[in-house]
Amino acid sequence: MNAEIISVGTELLLGEILNTDAQFLARRLSETGIDVYYQTVVGDNRQRLSESVRCALERADIVIASGGLGPTPDDLTKEVLSECMGEELVMHEESLEEIKGYFRAIGHEMAENNKKQAMMPKNAIILKNNNGTAPGAIIEKNGKIVIMLPGPPNELEPMFNESVLPYLKSKSEYILYSRVLQIFGMGEAMVASKLEDMMNEYENPTVAPYAKTAGVRLRITAKCKSEEEGIRLTEPVEKKIKEILGDVVYGYGDETIQEALVRLLAEKGLTISAAESCTGGCFAGMITDVAGASGVLNESVVTYANSAKMKYLGVREDTLARFGAVSEQTAKEMAEGIRKAARADIGIGITGIAGPGGASADKPVGLVYIGAASKSGTTVKRITLKGNREKIRHQACVYALDAARRAVLDMAQTDC
Amino acid sequence: MNAEIISVGTELLLGEILNTDAQFLARRLSETGIDVYYQTVVGDNRQRLSESVRCALERADIVIASGGLGPTPDDLTKEVLSECMGEELVMHEESLEEIKGYFRAIGHEMAENNKKQAMMPKNAIILKNNNGTAPGAIIEKNGKIVIMLPGPPNELEPMFNESVLPYLKSKSEYILYSRVLQIFGMGEAMVASKLEDMMNEYENPTVAPYAKTAGVRLRITAKCKSEEEGIRLTEPVEKKIKEILGDVVYGYGDETIQEALVRLLAEKGLTISAAESCTGGCFAGMITDVAGASGVLNESVVTYANSAKMKYLGVREDTLARFGAVSEQTAKEMAEGIRKAARADIGIGITGIAGPGGASADKPVGLVYIGAASKSGTTVKRITLKGNREKIRHQACVYALDAARRAVLDMAQTDC
Fold first, then answer.
1. Distance from CA of A123 to the nearest CA of B (A)
2. Number of Cβ pairs closer than 8 Å across A and B?
3. What CA–CA distance (Å, rounded) separates B19 from A61?
4. A365: confidence class by pLDDT, cuts 50, 70, 90
5. Nearest Cα residue to A115 out of A147, A82, A93
6. Partners of residue B305 in chain A, C-beta under 8 Å
7. B289 close contact with A: CB closer than 8 A
């Protein structure tokens, strides 16, 4: 089966918003084993939308349209797609009740034009919207499937996961069962070379790495009849991969490295604190983005100025004078200083040159030292990052998150 | 003139990357007065790419393709587009020298297949790539224009701005000259109602507001023959808008609120420091994302735990016990405490409930207090934000940046 994605909305054509819906749908479809050959963006225009839909119906088995299900006259998706499929729109009483209930819950009166959102194609499967007013719909006719979803990502994504995905899976004889391993600290090429035999020889499940901004995703995909069969097929492969790659595997599925770190710290009842120079708060910001971070982080400091490094962390003036603020010695004293000051189990010190200014002959833009202190001792990693200020800062944070994760693992080993 | 955007790349169809190129191109074209009716995404597949290009050439004056200019066999854009336009590919010696020079500069040897990147359509305008190896090209033939750009945003964006934009402007008898005002602290609907007469009556320049995630962009657009004429037409309108809207206008063009704040602090020689609870370092992170932030921020703290609020900021135990960590009183003491501890001109205190946990009957998720202390005194703003944890934290930071900006403006007024 193959699908085509049509994103409807003039705001997309004007570049006012990013088309995250198309990425979400494309990724989910690809994970489900459905090929996507085209994505189209078209505005709130009856004729052009109609032409795009007719073109898509000629070349794809499934057409998924997002957006244009709103209550205003320029929301045309339902009208146009139903017409293309030869279906009339009728009032769907259940949806009308849902919409009325939605407005009651937020204490607003329903506007008359919201009734339009309950007009649905006659012979369609109606998809409930638990996060907004516009229901979705699936029309199945003449060997084609047309799916309509609301545009806002917080409505589209749960509707797709809860209603569309089970529907699509029921249409297929087999399912694709995937396990994703998250990797940091080894490049895509090295991962591929270590798993070369597996990638070349395995047919079911298959193993494929994908590079991310920071790190690598490794997907193990089994073609199978049931989830149980999928687990049975992928589990031994996952185990073998972890044996080969070791502790560069930090997490599973969509887990970020900060989520993996917070999970690990919480499991072991440990706390963390950081002293940040070039990352200026972003490291603490990434940790505290994880719900439940308050259990593992009590305090953290941004010590941009040398005076702040001395005051909060006890970095010695002599160290700063002899080696500079961006040095292995300063990173070490920062990590140890914040660990002591915050009485944390893990102390992280980050100092570097994010640019564009501040570089010298022996200390280029992108040079970053990351110190990680625990009761097992202190390690300092020296890295040289490429890219602009934003990218260098973000990557420095990810390396620091990984350094923290390794410090926790080392502590656990020492305890054994 | 109207244009169609074709994004080429299987990684887009698989949902592995977000199509930021399409948004960038769409926005720039819209600002230049060129309509976009369709955007298409197609994979690295000769037949489907060719069909998409032929279809686009039928319905658009300009076709802009991005991606697929790399050195590997699956990079097909140049071959396919040149074929569609009836142009042959020939070696472009100047581009070959550029590519060789690029590799010399980074100290790598050029691979043989990089030569492919210097094969260009015979009668084309060649666009130099200052940030990578793939040159771009413009083919003009039979009343149609085909533009090919490299996929990586850090190559595509400067190439578009430096080479394509001047080319497109030269094709048009008139230009669109735009000024953008950045607004925070007034909703889109209120901005529109205050500027209603202007928006309805003005024909040249036109005035239009656009909502952003946080704040509003207001675009003044003049249709004119030259930049000078554009300035002459828009300047009085801009002045009038600023009179009507007052100090909610914080900046110009693409300037973010953190850039405006750092600029303002630097102009006045002031420093800032923050004590963050629910935003957990993100506020300092946003400020330090601006190059030159080290001139205005020496230190900043994340005080998640109550003990940290007392230790670093001198928040009184009694205040925390009587009013709670999320309260006007605590925000005030945090702002004043960090101002004193860091010897900063402006002290910001942020405390709130980012969720999903931590709420109580009278303190819902999204409740945030922002304190701003300066020598003129301390103000505390109470806001209730909607959305998930990430959105609440981000919005809280933006409100705090605005509070800091207003504190600087108030100080300046006090000085008069």
1. 30
2. 216
3. 24
4. very high
5. A93
6. 294, 298-299
7. yes
Question: How far apart (Å, rounded) are the C-alpha atoms in residues A350 and B381?
Answer: 33
Cβ B65 vs Cβ B148: under 8 Å: yes
Question: What are the structure tokens assigned to B232, written together?
Answer: 């002459």
As a residue count, chain B comes to: 416
Instruction: Report yes or no: B52 at the A interface, CB cutoff 8 Å.
Output: yes
pLDDT tens column, B147-187 = 999 998 989 999 999 999 999 988 888 888 889 999 998 87
Q: Is B39 on the interface with A (CB under 8 A)?
A: yes
Q: What is the dihedral of CA A75, A77, A79, A83, to 10 degrees?
A: 160
How far is the C-alpha of B109 from the C-alpha of A301, rounded, in Å? 44
Under an 8 A CB cutoff, do B302 and A288 touch?
yes
**A29 contact B CB<8A:** yes
What residues 153-182 of chain A have any CB closer than 8 A to a CB of chain B? none
Helices first, then strands: H and E counts in chain B: 16, 17
Give the single-character DSSP code of B161. Answer: I
CA dist A62 and B198 (Å) reads: 46
Q: Two tokens at A366?
A: 């992108």
Q: Is the ipTM of this complex over 0.85?
A: no
Other beta carbons less than 10 A from residue A285's beta carbon: 27
Instruction: Return the residue of A nearest to B26 by Cα.
Output: A15
What SS3 class is residue A375?
coil
The answer to whether B371 and B331 are in contact (CB under 8 A) is yes
A107 touches chain B (CB under 8 A): no
**d(C-alpha A155, C-alpha A130), whole Å:** 7
* Cβ of residue B389 closer than 8 Å to a chain A Cβ: yes
Distances (CA, A) of B196 to B149, B187, B199: 40, 14, 5
Per-residue pLDDT tens over the stretch B364-411 = 999 999 999 999 999 999 999 887 898 899 999 999 999 999 999 998
A54 to chain B, minimum CA–CA distance in Å? 14
Q: How many Å apart are CA B98 and CA B289, to the nearest integer?
A: 33
